[in-house]
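LOG
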Amino acid sequence: MTDSGDSVTGLPEPGGGGPGVLDGMRVLRLCSVFEPAALSGRSARYDAIGGMQNHTAELSRHLDTMGARQLVLTSRLDGPAGRAGFGRRGQVVRTGVDTRLARQAWAPLAAPLALGCGPVDVVHGHCGEDVAVLPLARLAARRHRCPLVITVHASVRHNMRVTSARTAWLRLAGGPAERRALAAADMVIALTRPAADRLAGEGIPDSRIRVIPPGFDPDLFAAAADAPDPFPDLGRPRVGYIGRIAPQRMSAR
């Protein structure tokens, strides 16, 4: 895949990451999960820590240093609903009811903000297991007459294994919505090269696909490099697995 130099969304291409490069750009981010405001004894039951949570938070932090003004709409998880500042210019609005079901119905409660806020320069939706995100992102982009960017973290069509009535419904309802949203997006971001190839194989033009691996803050791990081995009695080589234990996350078939 070769980049043309100018993004179809009007966003700078990777490499121009200096402070102020996005000065004033207004980003509406829609994600079913985000870095929690705080952790508690209930957090594990609400899927508070994970790949999308880390990805969306680190991306938002980096764009904040680049000058973007962001409004992040997400679920409340096990914390309270409400609005909070994020970085120097951003805000995170957490919505939903205090339940573990249906992602806390956060999306219908966030819809008035997604459609009523403005002006917006780009809508960025994060595709996962929540089937409400992408239709809402499409509506918001249409309402604000701005480009739509979608990052594919997981696919209900490809990653969702049917193990219950719930997962069967998610595939049935979410599959068509996912397909339509990806086809309508101005840019689709995949986390891996194989995922990008699969998108291209489904008919998304190569010029609208980018591969951007999940980001992280290396400073968080710098101290661990010199730390003593936490498993001195465990031989090498070692393979570690960190993730939510769910059928769609299992690497073995």
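LOG (cont.) second protein
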Amino acid sequence: MVTAMNMQEIEIRVAERRDAGAVAAIYAPIVRETAISFETDPPTPDIMARRIEIALQRYPWLVATRDGDVVGYAYGSEHQPRAAYRWSVNMTVYVAANAHGRGVGRELYATLIDILRAQGFCSAFAGIALPNAASVALHEAVGFEPLGVYRDVGFKFGAWRDVGYWRLGLTASSGAPTEPIAFAAFRETSTFKSLIG
């Protein structure tokens, strides 16, 4: 039986360039060995470092560490480029194989959701390549609700793949929202410091 890690042993913090190698190492087998990601070539640490740097301008990118080692990461990203979508955000989480089922993903998502909500985003979305029971369970455990399935939307490992979409409401959707705060500015606030510890 797998038991939850002691969450006091897990530190959630903002990703830095130095984390890119560990993040790439977590992601590489997912790309190479599964249809969970629709990428076909694992990104190098340099490519991952650039992704982190670009994301951190507008969205949070978090890592979970245990004894100094990165055991998972989660981030927000642009939902769609058109201006009216700017209150919506995509969420993604990946956990190292040796930390699956131990609450790392849930802890990352709890912190990420709090930050995105405080930034002023209204809706979060997640696309999950199907089947993926563990990811569906995680997303639904933190409050995501299923929206529907894009059938045969990707082709990997010789087969067509479906992607399910889930939504999490971050704020009430009535009236005109305030502009979301870019993460680069938000991380300097006392609100952020209270969320990340």
